[in-house]
Amino acid sequence: MNGLDELYRDVILDHFKSPRGKGILHDATIIAEGKNPLCGDELTLYVTLDGERIVQLRWDGHGCALCMASASMLAESMTQQPLDTVQHMAQAVLDMMHGAALPTHLRMGDIEVMEGVKKFPVRIKCVLLPWTTLQEGMKHHDAHTAQHVSFSY
Amino acid sequence: MPFDIRAIRRDFPILQTTVRGKPLVYLDNAATSQTPQCVIDALTHYYAQSNANIHRGLHYLAEQATLAYEETRKRVATFIGARSSREVIFTRNATEALNLVAQSYGRATLQPGDEILLTEMEHHSNLIPWQLIAKERGAVLRFIPVVATGALDLSRIDTLIGPRTKIVAFTMLSNVMGTITPVRELIQRAHAVGAVAVIDAAQGAAHRPLSVAEFDCDFLAFSAHKMCGPTGVGILYGKAEHLEQMPPFLGGGEMIHTVELTHSTWAEIPHKFEAGTPNIADVIAFRVALDYLATIGMDKIWAHEEQLTRYAAQRLAAMKKVTIYGPGLEDLRDAVIAFNVKGIHPHDVSQALDFEGVAIRAGHHCCQPLMRRLGVAATNRASIAFYNTFEEIDLFISALERTQQFFGVAS
Who's near B291: CB < 8 A, 6+ residues apart? Predict the structure, then answer.
């Protein structure tokens, strides 16, 4: 369709139709729920940590194609990352959607194709919901106890 | 005058434009309607030739502007069948009109334990004002439930309305499902227990002939911009006997009779409720919009829209993986259709349609409680005006089919 494939690039549609890392972790160290009540996007991130490293990350939820694809990209790029890198990556995605270039020293994975979405301002939050949810989850992270965080974007 | 759709469409400059290289198919009329050239001309004419503040100046322009402003008030009174133009108050929008009733009538009359009866399908503009005043006065909100077909469930109405009920406020026409509510019956039920009836006609006034005298409602609110008028003008109709008793809503210039340093007396109605310089230009241009609608005929508008809505609902219902909310195909439905496409979020649907020049709305439509009742977070909404055509419905449906193919959920 005319112009539509510029917004919904093939990589995005692929993540939407075949989401990576979708599911639930029963032994998660961090469970973070994020939702955007205005459009109904909702997702929960399940993260297991080993010390200062993400061992596994799964997500579950429902929402628009951009939000779901973004969550899939997040899951794919975060596994086995040290926590300080995770923080940098999440911040880099937020900055990218507000106009900054992605830092070259981070391996960001497919999320860079989402840069085109910033031309559609009302959809920026759809892309960011998984990443801000992860940031919220990490913010309240305490290495000794499992955390369950909910927030509304 | 025959209903000439081609001539009507030529009256609207925006309907000749393209969006992203495609002819505009505007199906977001429940959000706001488009503006005919005659209304645009009236605005330009006002600023070019008769701009002045009203009700104060003794010069020629002030006189002309005042006359034109008050002429709209008379025109509105005729259009809605009010007994007198004193019963017509100009506000910013229907929302402000409903807030006026809640803040003035509600605050002056509600006692702790009194009840306000609403419905589950109200727009937030006919819900939040009542939440605010109920909390302040210790009043209780009650709700007429909505059933799966989008109709109000009146089977338990006797348990919902009683001697404690002081205000019954409801929409004429659901802005989500196109449901037409039993206005006369509800007004009679309200009056039978001594309550006042407040009608939200923000959608209804744009689509159907209405008469406040025939309804015998106490208050009725609507917006100019949903009926070919400019933005920034709302109308509150209120029975004079209520308006005369009610305290002012906003204070300031224009609404006073005499002012002392510590107290004041109020102007007569309707001016008591119009503090400050009003939206003069847009009110004046709204008269032209009402003349325009009257020339076409609200009955002909309703007849054309009814056919179009039925056709659009049938086309949607024939698609696989499409769910329509509210009235069934055989039920009465007015101008608004909410639907979802399985596997595609409403925001993705409306974004995809936009690339085809088709404008619809996606979201909760300022009806979050109704969305929960329907069991969805959001829906798509196509809403029709008298200047829409059957060809436009076909373009909308074929764009929707391509959207399904694009996202891999083809029918």
Answer: B38, B75
